[in-house]
C-alpha cells in the first residue's frame, strides 16, 4: 500500500493564534476555573432584538438557498448604508459572503495567483495569513512600530517591498489587532502607491464605527479617482454583535474583480439565509445606535488601559478604534505565557485568556512579547480580567526585565 | 496611473452552470412567466419542525461564534449517525463546515497544492471545478457513458490518467448530476487504485439516503483498511431540506488531513451558529424519516421519467439515487436551448429552467446536448414542468435529429 501525503499547504498551514489555545481554555473551565476569554473578538452585547424578530416572527417554511450574491433586499440595504458614508457602491456591486472571512478569500483569489504577493502592515489580522496560505499567495509584511501607534511607515518602506509579483495591499482600518485608525494622509499614501504600481487595495473596514476620542473614520472608498482599484470588505459580526450569523460582504466597482468574486460565490451556492434575513433592517440603524456602541467600547478600553498602566513592564499605546489592544508584556515568550495562564495559573479561581502576539506577525520570530487583548466585556469584567492578568505576570516563571 | 489586473484564476473562473442563467429566469418571472426551477437542487419539502423549534423556542441572546470545528453537540450527533451506518468516525474527527461547499474546499486544499491533479468521474458536480480552480488544482476527468448508466470505467482508464501530480479522486455517490449509485465492486476498484498509487479518496455522500428501487448505499468509509485515506464530505442541505442553513462537514481519520482542515477552519472562525443548532436533533431522525424522504423523491423521479420517455429524441437513463437526471436532448447546444427557454419561450405562461450540461464536464465541448434536471418538486409539478419542456423542444429553432 502506497502511503498518502497531505499537501504542502496543508502540512504547513498555520494554526490561528486566536483559536489554537482554546483546548487549554476548555480544560481550564472543566477544572472549575473562570476563564476571561479576551482571545477572541466575541462581544457580550446582545444581538439587537429587531434582528431576532426578523427570523423569529415569520420563519420561512423551507430554509432555502439565497441567490449566490445574497438577497436583493440585503444588498440594497447595504448600498443605502454605504451611501450615507459617501461610499459609492451600488447594490449590484455587492456580494454577500459567509462573514468577512469568505469575503477576504474571494478578494485575494480574484486579484492574486499562486506565488503572487500581497503587502500587509504588520502586526496584522492573523487570518490574512491563513487565507493567503490556503490560496498559495505570499504575505509580505510592512513593519509598523508600537511607538508610532502602529501608524504606517513612509512610502519608501512600502516601495522597498514591492516586486513584480506584488498585486495588492490589504489594510484593516481601524486596525485589528492594533486599534489604529489611519489618518487621511496615510490612506492617500497607500492609494498613491497603488496607483503608481498597479495594485489593488483590499480595504477591511469591519470596525468602521468603532472610533474613539473624536477620531473620524475615512474609507478608502471615499476617494473618487481610485474607486475602481479598491475592494471593500465588510461584516455584520461586530457592528451588530452577530458573529455567529456569518454574514459579510465583498464589494467593488471594478467590474472584472466583481465578476471573479461572483463566480467564486456561485461555486459555494449561497451565504447563510437566516443571517441575511437578520441583517436587512440592521443596516438602517441610525447614528444613535453607533454612538451608543462606541460609547460602550470606550468605557471598556479605558478600564483596560487604566489597569495595564499599573503593571510594571507592560507597554500599550491607547488604541483609537476597533476593540483590541496590542500590549507588550515582560515575558520571555507570549505563546508560553498565554498557555501557562490557562494551564498552570489561577487567581481566586480565575484566569485570563489572551491571544499570543506571534501569530499576528508574518515576520518569523516577531511579536514574541506581545499579546492581543479583546476588550469585549463590560468595564468591570475587563478590569477584573486585567487584575488577574497582572497577578499572572507577577507569578509567571518566564518573567523578564 | 498604472492599471490593475485581476488574477488569472479570477479572470478564468468558470460561471456555475446551475446559477449562470438565473438573471434570465428573474427576467422571465418579471415578465409574468411561471418558471419551473429545475436548475438547482432546492427541494420544496418543508424543513422539519423540530429543526425550527431548536432555534425558535429558545434563541440565544448573543448570536456568537461557535468553535471553529463546530459545536461539540453537533459533532457528537453526527458521530452517532455515522456509527449506525458502520462508518467509524469519532466526534473529534469531524469538522462542521459552511455547507459541503466549504468542506470540499478544505478537503482539496489539504491534499493538493497548486498544479496538482485530482481525478473525477465525468459528468461531475460542476462546483468541483470551481473550487479546484480557485485553489489552483487541476481537475482530470474520468469519462463515463450514459449507456453504462454513468457507472465507472475499468481500472485501466483511470490509470491512464494518473500522473506524478495526481493526489486524489473525488467520487460523488449517489452521483450529482447523474443519480448513479455505485456498486461495491466500483468502490473497491477506486480504493484499490488509491492504495496502489498513494491517493486520497474524497467521498461526497451528501445524497446517501436518496437511493431508489432497492439500491443500497455503501460508503467509502465502510472499508476498514483504507479508512485513513478517505475524506468524507457531508451536508444537511438535502437530507433535511435545509439548504439555506449552510451546514456541512468534512471528516477523516487521517490525522494530518484533519489537522490541515482544522487549521483552515480556524482561519474562517466558525460555521453558522443557527444552522448548527437546527442540525443537532435532525441527525437522530429514524429510518422512517428517510424512507418517507426516498419515497417522496421516487414518485417525482417516476413522473419525470414517464414524461421524458414520451419525447422523441430524448435519452435518459433511470437514475437510481440523488434527485437529478442527466438527459440528452435533440438540440444543437444545451446552453443556447436553456437560455432560449427562459428568454424566448413559454407555454400557457410557463417555462422550465434546466441546467445546461456543458458545465458538468471538465472536458471542453462535452455535454453540449445534455441538461441536468433536478426533480425537487411534487410529481404533478414535475409532470407539468416536463410537459412544458417537451413543448419547448418542439418549438426550439435549434432542434436537431
TrEMBL record, chains A, B:
SUPFAM superfamilies: PLP-dependent transferases (SSF53383). The keyword Transferase applies. Its EC number is 2.6.1.-. One of its GO terms (biological process) is amino acid metabolic process. CDD domains: AAT_like (cd00609). The keyword Transferase applies. Belongs to the class-I pyridoxal-phosphate-dependent aminotransferase family. This is Aminotransferase. It comes from Eiseniibacteriota bacterium. The lineage of its organism: Bacteria, Candidatus Eiseniibacteriota.
Amino acid at each position: 500500500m502506497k502511503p498518502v501525503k497531505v499537501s504542502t499547504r496543508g502540512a504547513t498551514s498555520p494554526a490561528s493564534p486566536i483559536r489554537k489555545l482554546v483546548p487549554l481554555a476548555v480544560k481550564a473551565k472543566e477544572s472549575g476555573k473562570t476563564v476571561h476569554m479576551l482571545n477572541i473578538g466575541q462581544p457580550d452585547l446582545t444581538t439587537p432584538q429587531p434582528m431576532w424578530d426578523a427570523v423569529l416572527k415569520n420563519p420561512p417554511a423551507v430554509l432555502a438557498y439565497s441567490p449566490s450574491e445574497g438577497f436583493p433586499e440585503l444588498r440594497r440595504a447595504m448600498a443605502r448604508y454605504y451611501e450615507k458614508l459617501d461610499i459609492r457602491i451600488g447594490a449590484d456591486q455587492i456580494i454577500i459572503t459567509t462573514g468577512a472571512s469568505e469575503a477576504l478569500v474571494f478578494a485575494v483569489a480574484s486579484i492574486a495567483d499562486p506565488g503572487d504577493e500581497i503587502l500587509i502592515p504588520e502586526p496584522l489580522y492573523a487570518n490574512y495569513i491563513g487565507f493567503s496560505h490556503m490560496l498559495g499567495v505570499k504575505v509580505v509584511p510592512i513593519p509598523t512600530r508600537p511607538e508610532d501607534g502602529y501608524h504606517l511607515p513612509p512610502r519608501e518602506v512600502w516601495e522597498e517591498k514591492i516586486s513584480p509579483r506584488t498585486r495588492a495591499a490589504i489594510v484593516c482600518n481601524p486596525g485589528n489587532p492594533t486599534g489604529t485608525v489611519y489618518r487621511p494622509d496615510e490612506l492617500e499614501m497607500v492609494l498613491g502607491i497603488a496607483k503608481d504600481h498597479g495594485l489593488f487595495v483590499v480595504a477591511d473596514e469591519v470596525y468602521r464605527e468603532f472610533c474613539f476620542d473624536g477620531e473620524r473614520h475615512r474609507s478608502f472608498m471615499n476617494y473618487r479617482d481610485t474607486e475602481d482599484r479598491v475592494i471593500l470588505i465588510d461584516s455584520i459580526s461586530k457592528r451588530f454583535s452577530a458573529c455567529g450569523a456569518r454574514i459579510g460582504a465583498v464589494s467593488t466597482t471594478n467590474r472584472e474583480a466583481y465578476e471573479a468574486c461572483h463566480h467564486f460565490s456561485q461555486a459555494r451556492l449561497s451565504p447563510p439565509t437566516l443571517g441575511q434575513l437578520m441583517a436587512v433592517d440592521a443596516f438602517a440603524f441610525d447614528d444613535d445606535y453607533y454612538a451608543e456602541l462606541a460609547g460602550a467600547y470606550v468605557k471598556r478600553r479605558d478600564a483596560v488601559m487604566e489597569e495595564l498602566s499599573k503593571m510594571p513592564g507592560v507597554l500599550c499605546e491607547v488604541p483609537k478604534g476597533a476593540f483590541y489592544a496590542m500590549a507588550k508584556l515582560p515575558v520571555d515568550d507570549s505563546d508560553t505565557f498565554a498557555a501557562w495562564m490557562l494551564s498552570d495559573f489561577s487567581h481566586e479561581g480565575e484566569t485570563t485568556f489572551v491571544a499570543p502576539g506571534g501569530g499576528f506577525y508574518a515576520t518569523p520570530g516577531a511579536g514574541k512579547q506581545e499579546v492581543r487583548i479583546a476588550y469585549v466585556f463590560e468595564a468591570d469584567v475587563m478590569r477584573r480580567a486585567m487584575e488577574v492578568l497582572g497577578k499572572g505576570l507577577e507569578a509567571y516563571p518566564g518573567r523578564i526585565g
